[in-house]
Amino acid sequence: MTDSEQRAPGPGDVTVSAPDPNFSSSQGTAGVSVGADDAVAQELIVRYRRRMRRDRVAAVAFPVLSLATIFVAWWGAVNFLDIQRFILPPPGEVLSELRRTVASGYLPEHFRSTLISVILGYGVAVAVGIAGGIVMAISKTVYRLVYPPLVAAQGVPKSALAPLLLIWFGLGLISKVMIAMLIAFFPIVIATFHGLSSVPPEFNNLGKSLGYSRVEMFSKIQFPYALPEIFSGLKIGIALAVVGAIVAEFVAARAGLGYVLIVATSQLNTALIFADLLVLGLMGVVLFAAIDLLERLVVPWHVASGRPVVSA
Amino acid sequence: MSLPDDRWSAPDGKVLRESADDRGIVQCWEGVPLVAVAVESVSKVFYSGSEAGLVRALQDISLEVNSGEFVSILGPSGCGKSTLLSIIAGLAAPTRGVVRVGGRVVDKPQTDLGLVFQDALLLDWRDAIGNVMMQVEAKKLDRSTYQAVAMELLESVGLKGFENKHPWELSGGMRQRVSICRALIHDPPMLLMDEPFGPLDALTREQLMLDLHNLWLERRKTVIFVTHSINEAVFLSDRVVVMTPRPGEIFEVLEIDMDHPRDLSAQSSETFTRTSARIHKMFQSMGIFAKG
User: Fold this and answer.
1) A302 in contact with B at a CB cutoff of 8 Å?
2) Average pLDDT of the segment spanning A87-95
3) pLDDT at residue A20 above 60?
């Protein structure tokens, strides 16, 4: 790089040591002593950028590597351990089954059916969950009325309600939406309530001294303050909404990726099961990424304040 | 006890900067200082469950703060000094007694003064200038006029170039400076500060102390400054109100007879060391410090 004499000692460690420890502590967390000259600064910047670049590459390369390893192990296991096709089909067979069922429009149709249930169920869960969390945070009476039964109801697995909903709403969309909604609702309502309740009381005094009304207090301080936590609830919720829709499709549907799983199982079409799982995984990842992106747009301060400090 | 009207403001609304003392800070009318705040026999009692029992936070506090004066309320933790400040700000009601600001009884949160809390209380989703502008938006003042005022204020506390930084990009000292700017932008006649330098490191505290002193000299605000630092109280104040531990009572009010402007060397002056020693002795007599 640059002048080697200006380098700090130690491999990979480029913190410039200050001559006097008392002096360096009074310099706070800057890490570079006042005496650091241009060459050292340049060196630090170069190393910092290199480290950042390496981190970015590793963030993509490592997951790709682990996925590739899984596929190779899968392929190897099927070929060399003589595993029967209906137990574990080789990756190639899964891919060709995927291509076939996608081209015929079979999987896309069921994909659409599941996606609609997920989005509708999640949408209702978000609306009801956020509204419920707000009302509970505002009114202690509502909180007392609603919260304990809500927590108690959480003891019943939502998927266990599917047979009941089948009786009430019959086969089809409504049952699927209901289950997806019920299962996604809980983390959203809890996160909203908790986020709104955890605003430090000093902010209340600040708002009063600014002459804020209750509405302004809520819209200008309390709600934005709670947004990062609300989003953590929303992210858990979207993953659960997919689970809810699939479980509902096992029991109470004639369409959807969950229904395809039941059909494929009865036919011992294991390749189709894997193809279906791949599509399902894709749906989950894309939906989660969408909420994550939304968070970055709506709550940039939270994402940015969590940015790691990379020291060179 | 109630003050006559002519102690609150000069006749015809004229306020003269004629001074009662040589320092020329306190606003007077015909040689008598004008009063900004009158605390009249204020007591405050809390009850928080049987374990803690009845907490007598404040016991019969009476105090007058003159217009333009810098008064520190100094006392050990839990002596009710922050409670007193909240009562003056209208954020808490006294159990007994009354507080008047500018002649009016305080019975609701005061919005025309500047409040600085121990925590900077900045909103993470607003940048530095956005946090300062909260005050302007809340009071529906003209944005474009005050945008310039906000920039000036930030510059005056050494934050030029940091206007668009967000709180998490600022150091603790910088955040508290932003918070002070937010308390000053609407040009309030009075600043209430509740241990504003509490969580900061010693050097930053000293710097902010100096900055506050200069700001006060420049802008002639009435300041009530709550602290547990003898150093800050003596350095900054015209008068220091020394309080006892719970129940918080006024132990003594000390006049700090040092010239303005003060710089850090004032801390080694004879008056400064003598006054600090006196306050130490007072705290010792209350049992705050172990003998030794």
Assistant:
1) yes
2) 91
3) no
Give the C-alpha separation, B96 to B238, whole Å.
28
pLDDT at A43 over 90: no
Interface residues of chain B, partner chain A, Cβ below 8 Å: 86, 89-91, 109-111, 113, 115, 117-119, 121, 123-125, 134-135, 138-139, 166, 168, 171, 203
Residue with tokens 């089809």: A172
Strands B35-47 and B96-101 come out as antiparallel
Task: Give me the pLDDT at residue A170, please.
Answer: 86
Q: Which residues of A touch B124 (CB under 8 A)?
A: 301-302, 305
| Chain B: residue whose CA lies nearest to A213 | B138
Distance from B38 to chain A by nearest Cα, in Å? 19
pLDDT of residue B10 exceeding 90: no
Please give the residue of chain A at the shortest CA–CA distance from B86.
Answer: A205
Contact A211 B115 (CB under 8 A): no
Q: For residue B23, what is the DSSP state? A: T
Domain ranges for chain B: 5-113+188-285, 122-187
Provide the pLDDT for residue B200. Answer: 85
- Residue A13 clears pLDDT 50, i.e. is over it: no
Contacts of A282 (CB under 8 A, 6+ apart): none
Residue pLDDT, tens place only, B143-175: 999 999 999 999 988 899 999 999 988 998 999
CA dist., res. B148 & res. B142, Å (int): 11
Question: Does A308 reach chain B within 8 Å, measured CB to CB?
Answer: no
Q: Among all residues of chain A, which has the CA nearest to that of B168?
A: A305
pLDDT at res. A101: 94
Task: Report the residue from A202, A209, A210 with minimal CB separation from B119.
Answer: A202
Distance CA B35, CA A113 (A): 74
In this structure, what token pair is assigned to residue B205? Answer: 């505290």
B5-113+188-285: CATH superfamily: P-loop containing nucleotide triphosphate hydrolases (3.40.50.300)
Q: Which range in A231-240, B167-176, B201-210, B255-264 is most confidently predicted, on average pLDDT?
A: A231-240
Q: What is the mean pLDDT of chain A?
A: 85
Fold of A91-305: MetI-like fold (1.10.3720)
Q: Residue B73: beta bridge partners?
A: B226, B241
Question: Which pair of structure tokens corresponds to residue A137?
Answer: 């945070």
Q: What is the pTM of this model?
A: 0.80
Cβ B109–A209 below 8 Å, yes or no? yes
Q: Whose CA is closest to B234, among B211, B264, B214?
A: B264
Assess whether pLDDT exceeds 60 at residue B262.
Answer: yes
> Where do the CATH 1.10.3720.10 domains begin and end in chain A?
91-305
